[in-house]
Amino acid sequence: MISIPSTDSLVPRSHRLANGRTLYYFPSDSTDLVKIDLVSESGSAYQSQPLVAAAANRLYTVAGGDLSASQLAEFLDYRGIIIDSNNTITHCSTSFYTLARHLDALLPVVDDLVRRPLFPEVDFDVYWRERRQKIASAQMKSSDMARRVFYDALFGPRHPLGRYAVPEDADRLSLDEVKRFYAERHRAEDLTIVLSGHVDDCLLQAIDDRFGHSTPGDALPRITFAGTPIVDPSRRDYPIAGAVQTTVRVGRLLTLAWDDPDYARLMLLVTLLGGYFGSRLMSNLREDKGYTYGIYARTQIYRGAIVFYITADVAGDAAADAEREIMHELQRLVDEPVADDELNLVRTVLVGDFLRSVDGIFERSTRFIDMLGTDVTERFTDNLRQALLTATTADLQRLAATHLAPGLMTVCRAGAL
Question: What's the pTM?
Answer without folding.
Answer: 0.93
